[in-house]
Amino acid sequence: MSFFARFRRLPAPDAPASRGRRIAARITTVLASLFVLFVLIAPYDLERFTPKEFLRIPVEALFGLVLVLVLPPRPRRIAALVGGIALGVLTVLKIMDAGFDAVLYRPFDLVLDWPLFGPAIDYVDVTIGRWAAIGAVALAVVLALGVLVVTTLSVMRLTRTVERRRPMATRALVVLAVAWITLAVPGMPIASNSAAAFAYDHAVAVQAGLRDHEAFQAETAIDAFRDTAGPELLTALRGKDVIFTFVESYGRDAVEDPELAPQVTAALAEGSEKLRAAGYASRSGFLSSPTAGGGSWMAQATLLSGVWIDNQQRYRNLVTSDRLTLGDAFQKADWRTVGVMPGITQAWPEGEFFGYDQIYKATDLGYQGPRFGYATMPDQYTMSAFQRDERAKTDRKPIMAAIPLLSSHAPWSAIPDQVDWDSVGDGSIYRSMDASNDKPESIFGRDPVQVRADYRKSVVYSVRNLVSYVEKYGDDNLVVVFLGDHQPAQLVTGEGASRDVPISIVARDPAVMERVSSWGWNDGIKPGSEAPVWKMSEFRDKFLTAFGSQPPKSTHPAG
Fold it and tell me: What is the residue range of the signal peptide feature (predicted)?
């Protein structure tokens, strides 16, 4: 071989750079393949993020490979672009589902859940600041667009790779297809169609969401007590102060979970004995909440209106309707009605719907102490302010009050001590206690064992606070109904928890308790496992029926 022939076979001066580009290209292709496989297989349920979940062959990838091999060049590129965008949208939806599942026990609803982003942004605005809210929105948009771009580019790169290596891609398709068909039997996790099933489930949910407005209108078309005259409403409660308190995140797991229940049920048993010693009777059951992990306002609206409110669209439709609420019923029957809302820190125009003569927002309650986590003020202060501003007044009407309590709201990182009621004052006494401004989402960065212990402690505090209030300020004309609004986050309950919450009624007047004897509730403020479970939307009519007349025989559309 001549010298010149040898010279021609020597690598070009830029060969190392070319080799580097080839290696980088291969690495990029491998990463694109892994990314596409990941988004096809990844579950939206974070608890299923285990290694075995990713040892599967997605049928969607095989179908995509077939399209790339059989389509002509131009349709192939169009299919790759459309498929990449669709897969990107599916990935963003999986991320949103994971977030909703972790907090609300359910996937994101493409039709009904968009209005929830408004309250979420408002929450960030109030708790962290306006710029933080703007930054959070901007970051969410950038991340969503980033996922769409990366997914689309990955699919298009893999399409070009298959075009260049058709024989190898064809052999791989045959092998993988045979493996998928062979292993597509029950109990074998290798064969996967999770992405297609995921898309199908959301398509079904979209159809249901589009029909939900009509379903809601049908549910509210007949309002059994709408035309009942005021003198005929709540006749068995005349002269009584009736207080409805919603204990944040007080769910069935608090009284039945082996890790949570011993301390909580001990506090409930102790409370039942104290109430009995003070001359009070109590009975308890369960309600099934329309929400879990969050969305307290939907649970409260459900109980007060007698309509199932499990999404924000229903809530918005409800508060613009003329549906009779428990507040309206008491108002028609000549009670003074108040909403004590320590969690409301800004304008709340929909509050007018609930039939309150007066609404006390957080800034109206005069609290001068620190925040304890999410809670703007301790439960004891909320009840003390209500007593001071309403029940302590002389020459007044009977009062009906709705009071959501916040001390048992996530993140449960700081719980105040119970103090003497006469020392509560303006809340300055709480400045000497360890407080916290931790946000609810901080629970996901803490030890789950500690989170559960803190949750348990907060429920015990809230229950003891209510029992102590009745002991201190109760009389023959006090009736207290307290219940949970929803179960806590899945970090506390684990996967598959029910949506049941305890509910109790407390009164000294035997005639009041006799009215609810047919409900089948257990004695005391702890419901047993066999206690009845009602839908929360059933409570309004059962309560109005028990303490007043039957609804009119002829009813009319709710308008």
Answer: none
